[in-house]
Amino acid sequence: MNAATRPSLTAILSALPEEQQGLLEQLVGAQKQTVAGRDFWLGQLHGQPVALGLSRIGKVSATLTAAVLIGHFGVSRMLFTGVAGGLAQGVKVGDVVVAHDFIQHDLDVSPLFPRYEVPLYGRSRFPCDPSLTALLALAAGRALTTAPDTTSPIVAGAQVHLGLIASGDRFVSSADESSRLQAALEGAGHAALAVEMEGAAVAQVCADYGVAFAAMRTISDRADNSAHIDFSTFVAEVASLYAQRIMGELLQSLPAPT
């Protein structure tokens, strides 16, 4: 069966196994396929055909994984769920940031091109699909409102934010670096809510292929000197739960597969 005759297929990407472990456990009729040294799991979640995959960490790995999902599996839409560091004021640990668009904060080909601009594209930011992003934001709001553990101190008062996310091949883990990054981006007119390491690459691949893309990130830290504290625990006990609930809400809101 080629891509043109396959049912509508939704890809769900995460950088780390822990970020989508719960989704894999819920996958109905799971079948593993290995392509380009990567394991992909195909099956159904909430009545929707899905392909689960790990982007791994960093923009190069994320680019390859996204390209395989589109070129080999013929996915019709791409979702990303994982964690990020908060940059903007008011974006706190336990919040969810749904991406409106992405920028590479470590891309600088000046003076040939303006800082942050992707060469030969004439743009610095790659937008997410508006319709899919709106559905994801609504799903995140519903999931946080109805989550049974919102009394937990780490997620009390959790909010959903919509805006720019910055990606780069560096784990931002000090207050000084976070402040410098935020100031540089804002100085160029790019006020980012959060920082991570994969999303901008996936957004660019999806734009090139014309595949709808939406992404959410659970804020695990403030991209400062506390960024390493209890990270693994947070991913396993909080971000994984968010991924299950939000992706579940989103998948149930999608049209029936054709």
Overview of this structure, please?
It is a single chain. The chain is an alpha/beta fold and 258 residues long. The protein has a single domain (10-253), classed as Rossmann fold (3-Layer(aba) Sandwich). It is 32% helix and 28% strand. It has 6 helices and 10 strands, in the order E-H-E-E-E-H-E-E-E-H-E-H-E-H-E-H. It has a 5-stranded mixed β-barrel with strand order 5-9-8-6-10, surrounded by 4 helices. Strand 3 (38-45) and strand 4 (48-54) form a beta hairpin. The two termini are 15 Å apart. The relative contact order is 0.23. Residues 1-5 and 150-154 have low confidence and may be disordered.
Q: Unreliable segments (pLDDT under 50, ≥5 consecutive)?
A: 1-5, 150-154
| DSSP, total strands | 10
What's the CATH class, please? Alpha Beta
CATH architecture: 3-Layer(aba) Sandwich
Shape: globular
Secondary structural class: alpha/beta
What value does the average pLDDT take? 90
**Topology-level CATH name:** Rossmann fold
Number of helical stretches of at least 4 residues: 6
Integer tally of domains:
1
> Going across the major beta sheet, what is the strand order?
5-9-8-6-10
Assign a percent range to the helix content.
Answer: 25-40%
Q: What is the terminal separation in angstroms?
A: 15 Å
> How do the SSEs run, as a string of H and E?
EHEEEHEEEHEHEHEH
Q: How many strands, which pairing sense, and closed or not: the largest β-sheet?
A: 5 strands, mixed, barrel
Strand content: 25-35%
Oligomer: single chain
Name of the CATH homologous superfamily:
Nucleoside phosphorylase domain
Radius of gyration: 17 Å
